[in-house]
Request: fold
Amino acid sequence: MTAGLLDTDVLIAYREADDDAAACVERVRAEGKPQISQASVLALLAWCREQHDQTVVDEFLKPVVVHSVTALVSRKAVALMRGLTPPSRLTPVDVLVAATALILKLPLYSLDPERYAAVPGLTALSAH
Reply:
């Protein structure tokens, strides 16, 4: 498994103890530090309903490389959103994650890589 960015769907499924997502995260950890977008961190934190949930997310994030949503990433995400034909299957968080992967020239590991088919230049790979 080559270095790449983990999609938010992988992280949320991992938190929900999905076997495919857990296997993907473990494969990435075996190769080095997992990489995620700051937008994914916010999505994970928004999912937390109790302090314990936030503690679990904080522990998960300790060995993870978190890439910031910079002005460059934001501009790329806006350009991507404008280029998508409505209705898009991608959420704003998905587009920020895709923009991060494109800027960093990393593939994106997703549970549903076909969802990203409309994003030009993005290599979306199956996390399965």
Notes: The radius of gyration is 14 Å. Helices lie at 8-15, 19-31, 38-47, 51-61, 71-83, 92-104. The chain is about 55% helix and 10% strand. The domain at 5-126 is CATH 3.40.50.1010 (Rossmann fold).
